[in-house]
Design brief:
The chain has 358 residues and is mostly helical. The protein has one domain (29-357). It has helices spanning 4-10, 31-38, 46-69, 73-98, 107-119, 124-137, 154-159, 162-171, 174-178, 180-196, 202-248, 265-271, 280-285, 292-297, 306-312, 326-333, 348-357, and strands at 275-276, 321-322, 337-339, 344-346. A two-stranded parallel ribbon has the order 1-2. It has a two-stranded antiparallel ribbon with strand order 3-4. Strand 3 and strand 4 (344-346) form a beta hairpin. The longest helix is centred in the middle third of the chain and has 47 residues, at 202-248. It is globular, with a radius of gyration of 21 Å. The protein starts with a helix and ends with a helix.
Length: 358
C-alpha cells in the first residue's frame, strides 16, 4: 500500500467494522485489526466540536482585540503571544475539519474554515493535496517535491550534486522552520502552488489577497504597531510553532524509514510518527496534535478524543517520545539523513565521516 489512492481507500473508516477497544488481546494487534480498534473513537460529538471551536475562536478574537487596543505595549505583547497559541489551536480545528474528523456537514463550519484558511495562508486545495500525500507516504523516502520536509539516504547524499545538497539543507534547516510564516505557509503552501497551476490553485490567490487586505486595513487604520501585534507577530509565532511541530514529529531520534516493499500504513504511523509529551496546557493549545502516532493511524479521530484512544489501546501506549525541551529540539534538527546500513538517522558530519571510512 504505497499510493495516496490506497491511503484514501484505507482511511474510509466508516466502511470498516469496529472492535471493542476495552477488550484485552493476548497478541498485540497490527494492521487492520489495530486500525479497527480505533474506529469507535472516530465519531465526533457535534456539541463537543462546536464547544471547542466556538470557545477558542471567541478567545482568539478577544486576545486579538487586546493586542490591538491595549494601551501598554507589554500588555499588547502578552495578548499577541496568547493569540499565537490560540491560532495554533485553531489551526488544529481546520486540520481536523479537512480530515473530515469534525463538523463535516456544517455549512457554518465550511464558511468559518474557508475564511480562516485564507487568513492563515493555508488554501484548502494545496493543503489537502500536500497533507494527504504526507499521510499516504510518511515513513518513506520522498523525492517528489510534494512533501514539506523530504528525507534523503546517506548513499544518495554522497552522489548528489551540490545544487541538490544546498536545496536539501535549506529545506530542512532550522531557519526554514523558524521563518515558517514566509517559507512554508506563504511560499510553499500558497504562492508556489498558485504560480505552478493557477487554474487549480485559484484559492491560493484568494488567500494571498485576503491576507494582504487584512494587513493593509490594520496598518492604515491602526498603524504599524497594530498590524504588528494583531497580525504579523502572532501569525509568525504560530507558524514557527506549527512548522516545528510538523517537522519534529517526523524527524526524531528513533524514527524509522521503511523500505517500499515493507511499508504498511499502520507501521508507518507507529514507527515514523512520535508522541510529543507536553504539559496539559500545551496539549490544550496544540490541540493534542502531540498524539501524532494515533492521528496517523486514524485521521478521522477528533483531536479531543486522541488521549482517550491512547488510554484505551495498549498497543498505542509505547511510542517514541519527544518534547519541546531544548535537547530534543536540537536532536530533531540533527536527524538529517537516513543511514540504510545503520537503520537510523544521522547528521551530515556523521554521513561524511562514514563515507570517508567506507
Amino acid at each position: 500500500m504505497n499510493t495516496a489512492l490506497e491511503f484514501a481507500q484505507m482511511t474510509d473508516f466508516n466502511s470498516q467494522p469496529g472492535v471493542d477497544p476495552s477488550r484485552a488481546s493476548a497478541v498485540p494487534r497490527k494492521g487492520k485489526d489495530l486500525i479497527n480498534a480505533t474506529v469507535p473513537f472516530a465519531r465526533e460529538s457535534a456539541k463537543a466540536s462546536w464547544w471547542h471551536v466556538g470557545s477558542t475562536f471567541a478567545m482568539l478574537v478577544a486576545a486579538l482585540a487586546g493586542a490591538g487596543l491595549a494601551p501598554w505595549w507589554p500588555l499588547r505583547l502578552a495578548f499577541s503571544l496568547l493569540s499565537a497559541l490560540l491560532m495554533v489551536r485553531s489551526f488544529i480545528f481546520y486540520h481536523d475539519y479537512m480530515h473530515r474528523a469534525i463538523l463535516v456537514r456544517s455549512k457554518i463550519a465550511w464558511l468559518l474554515f474557508r475564511i480562516y484558511s485564507a487568513l492563515s495562508l493555508t488554501p484548502p486545495r494545496s493543503w489537502k493535496e500536500t497533507h494527504n500525500y504526507h499521510h499516504g507516504h510518511v515513513g518513506q523516502l520522498d523525492d517528489s517535491g510534494i512533501g514539506t520536509f523530504p528525507v534523503m539516504t546517506t548513499k544518495d547524499w554522497a552522489e548528489a550534486s551540490w545544487a541538490t545538497k544546498i536545496n536539501y539543507r535549506i529545506t530542512r534547516h532550522p531557519l526554514t522552520v523558524l521563518a515558517g510564516y514566509v517559507t512554508i505557509f506563504f511560499f510553499s503552501l500558497t504562492l508556489l502552488p498558485f504560480l505552478k497551476d493557477p487554474a487549480r490553485h485559484w484559492d491560493g490567490l484568494l488567500s494571498l489577497l485576503g491576507h494582504a487586505a487584512l494587513l493593509a486595513v490594520l496598518w492604515v487604520f491602526g498603524g504599524f504597531a497594530t498590524a504588528f501585534f494583531v497580525m504579523l507577530l502572532p501569525i509568525a509565532v504560530a507558524s514557527t510553532l506549527g512548522s516545528y511541530l510538523f517537522f519534529a514529529q517526523h524527524s526524531y531520534k528513533g524514527m524509522k524509514i521503511l523500505p517500499d516493499e515493507n511499508w504498511t500504513y499502520h507501521e508507518a504511523a507507529l514507527e515514523s510518527s512520535s508522541f510529543m509529551k507536553l504539559n496539559p496546557v500545551m496539549h490544550w493549545f496544540t490541540g493534542n496534535i502531540g498524539f501524532h502516532h494515533i492521528h496517523h493511524l486514524n485521521v478521522r479521530i477528533p483531536f479531543y478524543r486522541l488521549p482517550e484512544v491512547m488510554n484505551a489501546i495498549p498497543e498505542l501506549q509505547s511510542p517514541v517520545i519527544t518534547t519541546l525541551k531544548p535537547r530534543d529540539i536540537l536532536a530533531s534538527f540533527r536527524c538529517c539523513l537516513w543511514d540504510e546500513d545503520r537503520q537510523q538517522t544521522v547528521t551530515y558530519r556523521q554521513a561524511a565521516r562514514n563515507c570517508l571510512t567506507a
